[in-house]
Amino acid sequence: MQTANLTREETAARSAAISVRSIRVELDLTGAPERARTGFPTATTLEFSSTVESTWLDFIGESVERVIVNGAEHEVVHDGARIAVHGLADTNIVRVEAVGAYSRSGEGLHRFHDPVDDRTYLYTQYEPADSRRVMACFEQPDIKASYTFVIDAPAGWEVLSNQSAAAVDVGVGVQRVEFAPTLPISSYITSIAAGPYARVDGDWRRDEQHIALGVLVRQSLAQYLESDEILDVTRQGLDFFTDAFDYPYPWGKYDQIFVPEYNLGAMENPGLVTFTEAYLSRGAATDAQRAARANTILHEMAHMWFGDLVTMKWWDDLWLKESFADYMGSHASAVATRFHDAWVKFAANRKAWAYQQDQLPTTHPIVADITDLEAAKLNFDGITYAKGAAVLKQLVAFVGDDAFFEGARRYFAANAFGNTTLDDFLVELSAVSGRDMSAWSRAWLQTTGVSTLEIEKDAEGATVLVQSDPRPHRLRVGFYDRVEGRVIRREQMAIDIHDERTPVDLPDADLVLLNDDDLTYAKVRLDEASLATVQDSLSAVEDPLARAVIWSSLWNATRDGELPATRYTSIVRAHAPQESNIGLLGGVLVNALFAIRHYAADDVRRDEQRRWVETAWSALHAADAGSDAQLSWARALAAASAFEDARAGDIRAILDGDAPEGLIVDPDLRWQLLTALVTTGHAGTDEIAGEQHRDDTGSGRTAARRALASRPDEAVRAEAWAAAWNDESLSNDHLDAVIAGVRAGGRRDLIAGFDEDYFARIGDAWAGRSIELARRLVVGLFPATPSLALVDAWIAENGSAPAALRRVVVEQRDHLARDLRVRAAQAQ
């Protein structure tokens, strides 16, 4: 269905010819509870002017029944993605009546039947181009319109959209809700939700402004909502952004809804923000999890200005919303909420995503060249989010807080309800900062790659700060000494560098830390003396942000093969049990297991796995009862035990009730522990059935599906393999569970026979499945072959494959090549 992949050129031509006045969307969702009903009636009425006689509307659904242009009924010409529209005048009213399809992939109008109580829940997710699965529309960000939604739904349901209800007509068993028209917005941020959601109300007031707040979740999860904290963070965010941007929140109400089977972390639909239920814990949660939720709340709130009020013209400038929102999520968390250490986790964990993405052969500038929608879908990545945010942090260090926020204020005032490009923002920032920002933009926004900073001695013995891939950096260097069992910063030096080699005069110290305070975007290497200090005393470094930069440096050096994986894991085993910042600890635990599985040489991996399981077991028991560290180590034990069964009997005892004092073994942790036992052959179908009976919820059924597919049996894995590719009834979450089962335990001996089948299938999967589900298959089932021969052959033989598919495969090849390269170096 090639016409579904809209290009930049054709949408630019359409927006030049079309100007929309209003769009009215009528949806009949009364049949949603009927499982056999696959679709819903949808009618869209569009009022617009046109300078051309014909155009097209975007729609993907079950059928198009009628097309009426300026009162005259036209033949339906629909190729599955586009509806041809002819006979246009200067001003037009076009009505399209169609049948949309309920989604199970998280794209469009997603329908979920809760197994706990058999209630039905609906919500929409559109970015970048799935509103066309619900309504006929102009599916591009630079055609904004005022939308009016009219929803027919079962009586008693919560029915929500971007605006508040203007009228509600209640009939027998049904209701019709007409919402107030929106201000001008792009199609991809329109939104609806409907179902018997539980709701908690609140409000926010500032001077004359009064915003109604709502927090919603399906009823079976209402007890886990933590609405008080969510509302507190929401109010703190509205306080902060109202002051910072000097532009009142423009969207009326502010509802936030947690929804099942969600593909993203959250989505910034104005007035109706959607979040994954993963932000709600069913028992135990660390403060780092709550900090992550707060960060996401503030990230989405920043979008109310960066993205919703002012929207990029095309997906090339996706950074104009995502980079800014990512930066603002951490900044606002640090200054406006109790989560003051937001930049600590950003330095060690969020930026790791950017560093990884930026070293792939498919890396791209922050301001990217996005030719079509498939490319746009794949650019919601570590460059656009985390690198963009890190570069903005460098920008703030460069121009100062005052100039940065004043530039943002002017940007909103000049472009409210419009569409912009890079130049529109740089013009405002240059005006307030007094600097020509074009050189900064060329160096940071329009280039690729990540610099590596390290200290060297030249031939004369002078100290030189060396950077690969030179660009301008404003950074600090910290000098730390060991003092009575602590590692404390003695002094700090500010440095501006531009060139590959910069002579510097640095004082002696036990630890010299480049990029202290994490102001710039660069990988940093520790000199050997500093590395020795870190190996002995990392947990004695008092400043958590300094520890974050150190942990990041160690991880990057390990990924690059410069620090042996065994040395990295020895540092983790020595110092992670003493890591007091729970956000740092969580990232380190994940990285340690990844290093063992991917970078440790084959002949030492088994011993490394055993040592790691024992470290997790010991740290679990040494942690304070009921602490976040205790819970984090329990999860690490579960993850590691899928590869090493040395503590299988102890895990069984935890499941039977003999858990360390204070540890909350909630349903999610129980499933993690049980799945580890299943993966290593210490539990089977009876135990899975018993656990599902104990936790017969949506999450429980998904976890059971994963556990069943994880059994260490060739026939089981073969059945799971076939289901992943062939069973199109699987929802997005269920597909993920099956894929995880196929890969469980790293059992190449059970699945190596599928390697060639993978490459035979991916082309058809990409053509026949939605891009969301196809991407999960291509990434999730990519084989960890012992050489690059198969993937290289596919790349060579499939030059005409869709560019987006080739990008995904090339990225997976690069990950595999890194694994093989680093392991080989370790073995030598």
Features:
alpha+beta, eight-stranded mixed sheet, 27 helices, globular, 828 residues, five-stranded mixed sheet, 43% helix
Task: Give structural notes.
This protein has 828 residues and is of the alpha+beta class. The chain is 43% helix and 21% strand. The protein is globular. It starts with 7 loop residues before the first helix and ends with a helix. The mean pLDDT is 96.
- The gross shape turns out to be globular
> Biggest sheet, open or closed, and with what strands and sense?
8 strands, mixed
Taking pLDDT < 50 over at least 5 consecutive residues as the criterion, the unreliable ranges are none
- The N- to C-terminal Cα distance equals 49 Å
Task: Explain the layout of strands and helices.
Layout lengths: L7 H10 E11 L10 E12 L4 E4 L4 E7 L2 E3 L7 E4 L5 E11 L6 E6 L6 E6 L20 E9 L3 E4 L3 E6 L3 E6 L12 E4 L2 E9 L2 E9 L9 H19 L8 E6 L6 E2 L4 E5 L10 H17 L7 E2 L6 H18 L5 H17 L14 H6 L4 H17 L1 H15 L3 E2 L1 H12 L4 H7 L7 E6 L5 E5 L5 E11 L2 E12 L3 E3 L7 E4 L8 E2 L3 H10 L6 H16 L5 H11 L6 H17 L3 H21 L5 H13 L7 H8 L11 H13 L5 H10 L3 H12 L4 H13 L5 H12 L4 H4 L3 H14 L2 H10 L8 H9 L5 H25 L1
Parallel strand pairs: 1-10, 16-17, 17-19, 20-21, 22-28
Antiparallel strand pairs: 1-2, 2-7, 3-6, 4-5, 4-7, 8-9, 9-14, 10-13, 11-14, 12-13, 15-16, 18-19, 22-23, 23-26, 24-25, 24-27
